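ARCHIVE ENTRY
Sequence with per-residue tokens
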Amino acid sequence: MKYIMSLRLLGALPLLWIVACTTTPPNTSTVASDAEINEAIAQVQADAPQQAVVDHAEPDAQAESPPPQADLWARLRSNYALPEVVHKRIDQETDWYARHPGYLNRVAERARPYLYYIVSEAERRGIPAEIALLPVVESAFKPFAYSHGRAAGIWQFIPGTGRMYGLEQNWWYDGRRNVYAATDAALSYLQQLHRDLDGDWMLALAAYNSGGGTVRKAIRRNKRQGKPTDFFSLRLPAETRGYVPRLLAIARIIKDPAAYSLELESIPDTAYFTKVDIGGQIDLALAAELAGMELDELYLLNPGYNRWATAPKGPHYLLVPVDKADTFASKLASLPMDQRMRWAHHKVKSGETLSHIADKYRISIALLKSSNKLRGSFLRKGQNLMIPIAAKSPRTYRLSEEQRTQRTLNAPKSGRHKTIHSVVAGDNFWDIAKRYKVGVRQLAKWNAMAPRDTLPLGKELVIWTRSAQLATHQGPRATPPGSNPVIQRVNYTVRRGDSLARIATRFRVRIADLMRWNTMLSKGKYLQPGQRLKLFVDVTRQSS
């Protein structure tokens, strides 16, 4: 098994003028709560390695490494290179952080597994060390952070810019959350911005937040008016005007915490994780067992993996603590490839569709098709399918995307009543929020989404309303048949290819209501052509 200790990355990619990120204030939206992440990190720290394994390091990487220092914060300070600016915006941000020492301590604890690698990469590229602190501003170092602007990961890449910098995003994997890959992409992007903005790091940081086009437009405006073109002289979006001062304020406090009556917990100046080539797909629970570590810890180092396993098409590597890498690599090398994943055999029954089978096994239709080399959607009775399945129960994978989302959906809200809204054709976040008298961002956050995310037909959204009365007036779901003249009974005959989801979408009702109105239905059984169902539909919501 190839065992890679080097933390070297690819060179800079071509710049595309797309906004990379959005500012993430202390209340950044995230699918995993602070308490969950901090609890997992606390458990990890109990066994944190104190010395890096260097026996397997590539000679050139070992030679280029800086001499070890007692504390990573000291190493960080020694490589500061941004200009020391005195400005009221920086003072305001500094005052806020100084008044909230608990916040900085929590962020520093979350940064512990990742910071050594980021500092090392910044040094290798000749980038000011303060930029290693940028994830504090972007995501508070929350590995599963997801903002209202659809930005993900500690570097907060939006989908388009992430893809342009090689960060793949699919059902299995989101490279924007891969700390190793996203750090490479973020620093490459920043270096390109720095080159294109005449070597000004302050402007490069502003462009990382609001886009290069926005900054260049502001520069052209000031030039026409005969004004200076430094960061503090430009007319930029309010978010960006606070973004760069926030980073400078954090750097100021890290430089001299005692001046603000703060004390930072020491972080050893030694590698926390290393990269191990796994050569193919593997169940993450099995990988954790091979490495002798908790599954939560493995997810925290590899937050890019959405599911119970690594992605079938890569990347084929895992980040593991340096003191566990040898054991993991050795055990993995002796494990046959066909024992890394569990597969179920499924024989297609009459009336089954790809949607039926995908729902049953909790996988995507695309995965079902790719696993069985299916080009179309046609299935024949008796056809044998291979289904990838998790080795453990779903709840074992607590930090998978599915489990994080379920906790978000089920988290109670004090003083509010839970309502379920089934998405129908024409729905969008704005209209739904207006109907239930809630905020658009709030609605998206309750459902682990962003306001610009696509709403699939039939998706059930959780809405927390302040009015119990509002929560009970949702049309067919809560209105007794016959009590409202716009609610009419419909007798429906099942057709070939029908599913509960398809019928619910067609008549704009909920699957749960279909099952309640037709007690013979159960999730374990499939609809048969000719079967008759009764529905109670809101005639005002049916299209012509």
